[in-house]
Amino acid sequence: MPGGLTLHGAEIDVAPGALDTLGARIAARLPAHRVALIADAQVAALYGERARASLAAAGGDPLLLTFPAGEKHKSRSTWGSLTDQLVEAGFGRDTVVVALGGGVTGDLAGFVAATYMRGVPLVQVPSTLLAMIDASIGGKTGVDTPSGKNLVGAFHHPALVIADPQLLATLPQKEVRSGLAEAIKHGVIADAAYFGWIAANLRQILHGNAPDDATSLQLVRRSIEIKVDVVRKDERERGLRKVLNFGHTIGHAIEQVTAYGIAHGEAVAIGMVAEGILAERLRLAQRGLADSIATVCDAAGLPVRLPDGVSPAEVLTATRTDKKSSGGRVAYALPRALGEMAGSESGYGIPAPDADVIRALEHL
Ligand SMILES: NC(=O)c1ccc[n+]([C@@H]2O[C@H](COP(=O)([O-])OP(=O)(O)OC[C@H]3O[C@@H](n4cnc5c(N)ncnc54)[C@H](O)[C@@H]3O)[C@@H](O)[C@H]2O)c1
Ligand SMILES: [Zn+2]
To answer: Closest residue (by CA) to atom 10 of ligand 1?
Structure first.
């Protein structure tokens, strides 16, 4: 992309139509590599052949490896099967793994790249909004275990991230909405104008998706810029990265008490509204902030209330087992205003009394 976004040596390109120039882009960055293209079966059916043709046109002989779509296949067993197939096909240290798909594929194929032959280069080609603006950026890879999500993994930064917003044209609405919750979060934590832009363009974002849609491009580009900026700055200012956790302390707790019966983005939307109310109660934010967040989430078709049958008390209890809490102490990332987070002096982690958390959840 013009101006060139980079993070930990990863070049991040946001370009409509990039899928068809995948081969040339990868060959320019990683010459003389053998390509292992990994995609779930659904994404492979939609885009596998175009990706393969582009890689072949650049002189490669790509091997397409697929696995069944869905979180339950982000597992050690799929990782084992993918790595076995690479060994059997004679892939060596000159392998480059190309992850084409959503966050499940990015995390799983990323973990294959992190571990195969003690680590080979990775190219992320995210195909969901969530993967474009969140999962493909930051270098986290891994798989789930029966005891929990992302329990086994490694940091492995991609050499290249190629986000083609045209791929969003086929993404189901529910998946678009789920990713949109993270984009709304980016607006709240870093850019009030972007928050306003999302609110003004919701119809286009949710129903547009024309192949040359400038709105998708702007959405993906601005969100990536914000996430890159936060992750990059955290190398110096310890703690800033926590702001990306806005909406997630309560969001993860809701995912947990519903046994993941709710989409991640939906839980984050409820979490952002509840944590916005919490910020108001703690007098960190002005009244009205939580309402602004709720209005946009609601208009985006995201839930803003606790699911039926879920009580504030059980959500509070679940926040204590969040992996980002330490010793049972829960530190929230809370906004001061749209585009600005509170707590810069204390590493952006703000403890909250139980009573205020309960009140905030009751207020939803
Ligand atoms: N590594 C990170 O930093 C990070 C951050 C956030 C989330 N994650 C992980 O991401 C995963 C969730 O990612 P996700 O929401 O992208 O889920 P996903 O990868 O399961 O994709 C959702 C569904 O959409 C389908 N799909 C993907 N692209 C499509 C397209 N362009 N058109 C039509 N269908 C398409 C997939 O086949 C799948 O069925 C979770 O496992 C989560 O832990 C990782
Ligand atoms: Zn999230």
So the answer is: 103
Please tell me which residue in 49, 235, 237, 362 is annotated as part of the active site.
Answer: 237
Active-site pick, 25, 34, 74, 140: 140
Same CATH fold, 173-363 and 5-170?
A: no
Domain limits of the chain?
A: 5-170, 173-363
Tell me if 126 CB under 6 Å of ligand 1. no
Which residues fall within 8 angstroms of residue 165, CB to CB, at 6 or more apart? 14, 16, 132, 213, 216, 217, 219, 220
- The CB of 134 under 6 Å from ligand 1? The reply is yes
Active-site residue, 186 included: no
**Which CATH number applies to 5-170: 3.40.50.1970, 3.30.420.10, 3.90.1300.10, 3.40.50.1380?**
3.40.50.1970
Query: Does the domain made of 173-363 have the CATH classification 1.10.8.60?
Result: no
- Each of the 364 residues of the chain gets a pLDDT tens digit; together they read 445 799 988 999 999 999 999 999 999 999 889 999 999 999 999 999 999 999 999 988 899 999 999 999 999 999 999 999 999 999 999 999 999 999 999 999 999 999 999 999 999 999 999 999 999 999 999 999 998 899 999 999 999 999 999 999 999 999 999 999 999 999 999 999 999 999 999 998 988 655 558 999 999 999 999 999 999 888 766 788 999 999 999 999 999 999 999 999 999 999 999 999 999 999 999 999 999 999 999 999 999 999 999 999 999 999 998 666 556 679 999 999 999 999 988 889 999 999 999 999 999 9
d(CA 117, ligand 2 centre) in Å: 30
Q: Is the pTM for the entire model greater than 0.90?
A: yes
